[in-house]
Amino acid sequence: MDVTRANSADCENEIAYAQQQATEYANLLEQQQADVLVVDETMEDCSGVDFCMSLAGRYPDTLKLIIIDGVSREMAEARQKGIIDGYVEKPVSDTAILEAIRNCASQPV
User: Fold this and answer.
1) Neighbours of 52 (CB within 10 A)
2) Half-sphere exposure of 46 (CA within 13 A, CB side)
3) Strands, E, within 53-97: which ranges?
4) In the chain, how many H helices and how many E strands?
5) Distance between CA 89 and CA 56 in Å, rounded?
6) 3-class DSSP state for residue 29?
7) pTM of the shown model
8) Could you count the other beta carbons within 10 Å of the beta carbon of residue 105?
9) 8-37 pLDDT, tens per residue?
10) How far apart are the first and last CA of the chain?
11) CA dihedral over 88, 92, 96, 101, signed as positive or negative
12) CA distances for 22 relative to 11, 25, 46, 79, 95, angstroms
């Protein structure tokens, strides 16, 4: 897991990027929490939505974003049910991720 501090005029967060092994990242999150978790939908051992669902109870205040190839019914339902806070379509840039964080943070709970 790569943990990065993102700074911009209105966004300062610890951002964790999880791309491969969900179990490994879950263990690392216990050691170093993050404000934002950015998860690739195609992780090796489970889907990004399943990974976010497994973390929901332990990290309710962590913003969860999924990197996706395209919007699917599963993504829309996960967003609607609050399993994830948002998604970013590939190709992904730092700017797109920061914009998604700002959009999610500005939405009412």
Assistant:
1) 23
2) 15
3) 63-68, 86-89
4) 4, 5
5) 22
6) helix
7) 0.76
8) 15
9) 444 455 566 555 677 777 777 888 878 888
10) 27
11) positive
12) 26, 5, 7, 20, 25
Digitized pLDDT (tens) for each residue of the chain, 109 residues in all:
444 444 444 445 556 655 567 777 777 788 887 888 888 888 888 888 998 998 888 888 889 999 999 989 989 999 999 999 999 999 988 889 889 988 887 776 5
pLDDT of residue 87: 92
C-alpha neighbours within 13 Å on the C-beta side of residue 101: 25
DSSP 18: E
Q: Is 78 helix (H, G, I), strand (E, B) or coil?
A: helix
Residue 50, token pair as written in the block: 């399943």
d(C-alpha 44, C-alpha 26), whole Å: 13
- The identity of residue 7, as a single letter, is N
**Averaged pLDDT score across all residues of the chain:** 80
Enter the tokens of residue 74.
Answer: 């599963």
Counting beta carbons within 10 angstroms of the beta carbon of residue 39, is it exposed (0 to 12), middle (13 to 18) or buried (19 or more)? buried
